[in-house]
Amino acid sequence: MNTATGPASGAATPILRVAGLSARIAGQQVVEDVSFSVPATGITALLGRNGVGKTSTIKAIIGLIDRSGVVELGGERIDKEATYKIIKRGVGYVPEDREVFSKLTVAENLRLAERDAAPRRQLVEELFPDLLARSGQMAGTLSGGQQQMVSLARALLNTNKVLLVDEPTKGLAPRIVGEVAETLAEAARTVPILLVEQNLHVVRQLAGGAVVLSGGRVVHTGPARDFLDDAALIHRHLGVSTDAAAPGDPVRRGAAQ
Ligand SMILES: Nc1ncnc2c1ncn2[C@@H]1O[C@H](COP(=O)(O)OP(=O)(O)O)[C@@H](O)[C@H]1O
Ligand SMILES: [Mg+2]
Predict the structure, then answer these.
(1) Which residues line the pocket of ligand 1, CB cutoff 6 A?
(2) Which ligand is nearest to the CA of 51?
(3) Of the ligands numbered here, which is closest to the C-alpha atom of 29?
(4) Domains, the chain, with CATH or none
(5) Any idea where the ABC transporter domain is (predicted)?
């Protein structure tokens, strides 16, 4: 029922393995000797303050920025390949700013994203009934949360080995944050996800593992719960107080309301 299961015995091969990944933007080192693995099931959170290199790490993985180091997808090297080939191999990317085609309808946005011969339209219709009802609406007239759903739906239409999802709840109202989180939880039943997320309630709700960056480097890896329960670690690496990680109402850290 789930295609993302690993070998029957022993430690499963990670779906994504990054080792010694480095990248520069405009001469500045933005990713430095980054190593971590994404298990073949569930959600792994990529955490860190603004500007530490989370987005750059994702872009380096798929070759959108020049990089060095090893990136393996299901045990196969992909770090010398062009972005389009990496995407075709089954890496779904949901970018930070959603990037829907605002002058196209919802249906047109989705059709443009279909890569496989048999796109998973039924799964998308089940996960996003609201989008189905709005299929003729211009994507630019949707709310931020609805645009985020379009962006997620585009990635889920294709059969991917892993999804890289960058700050899907950024700037959304708390109620919509919850809806996006539920959708991600549903999506993760069919595909493993590397998730950049600033909302620690969402991280607590969704993530199994956590990778924490600071200054372009990995400063912590381990179970997400262990990190979220450690006030000193959170304060040191994210600069927030512990109640931001406790169960309860979402706390928007420095985000526009
Ligand atoms: N297009 C760019 N031009 C110059 N510097 C950039 C660009 N994109 C990102 N950076 C710099 O790279 C660093 C990492 O940025 P980014 O990966 O976007 O961080 P994060 O996603 O963790 O907020 C920051 O110092 C940022 O200013
Ligand atoms: Mg970012």
Answers:
(1) 25-26, 30, 48, 50-56
(2) 1
(3) 1
(4) 16-240 (3.40.50.300)
(5) 16-240
Ligand 1 centroid – CA 48 distance (Å): 13
Residue 218 and residue 216: Cα distance in Å, rounded? 7
pTM: 0.90
The crossing angle, in degrees rounded to 10, of helices 106-113 and 144-156 is 30
pLDDT at 256: 38
Q: Which atom of ligand 1 is nearest to the CA of 213?
A: 22
Give helix then strand counts, H and E, for the chain: 10, 10
Show the DSSP H helices in the chain as ranges.
54-61, 83-90, 106-113, 121-127, 129-133, 144-156, 174-187, 200-206, 224-228, 231-238
Going by their DSSP bridges, the two strands 43-47 and 207-214 should be labelled as parallel
Mean pLDDT of the chain: 90
